[in-house]
Amino acid sequence: MKNRKLAIVFFWCLFTLGCATGPTPIPEALAPEIDRSLSFTELLENTDSHVGKVVVLGGQVLQAKRLADATRIEVLQLPLKDSERPASQRTTSQGRFLAYEQQFLDPATLADQPRVTIVGEVTGLATANLDETEYRYPTIAIKHMHVWETPREESQSGFGIGVGLGGGGGGFGGGIGIGTGF
């Protein structure tokens, strides 16, 4: 009986630790460089005054295109949650931005339009057509990009722990189960 209780406590601690840890979308080395006081709205309103600042932005990839010297990623901005993961509601977007990756990045790796968290340096403003209007995009040079798993990928893998206690006829029984899914 004492061993069962100890096992339950041990596995509960493992489970709790597993829930508390997860991917860190921002490398520790870059964290001190980020200007967290700069909002996306402020960046849109006066991009030129923020050139050179390092920001963290999130959103959903709309398209990626390989250029001669970089890969250009058009991102629908989405507010970041406390976990630095972009919000799931696209209606919360405040606009779009262009992020440039200097190292080779195959656009096919972003074809399923994943959500991303990007740490990058503000480089200026680009103007391009968006449907039938001219749109001003803040531009970012990527220092680090975290690509989040899609909900489908998340639901296909996982870890779980189950605990059961029961008894009957004056007895005490129980069980512990651990499983992973792919």
Automatic annotation (TrEMBL):
It comes from the Bacteria. Residues 1-21 form the signal peptide. InterPro entries: OMP_Slp. The keyword Nucleotide-binding does not apply. The keyword Cell inner membrane does not apply. Keywords: Lipoprotein, Signal. Pfam families: Slp (PF03843). PANTHER family: OUTER MEMBRANE PROTEIN SLP. This is Slp family lipoprotein. It comes from Candidatus Nitronereus thalassa. The lineage of its organism: Bacteria, Pseudomonadati, Nitrospirota, Nitrospiria, Nitrospirales.
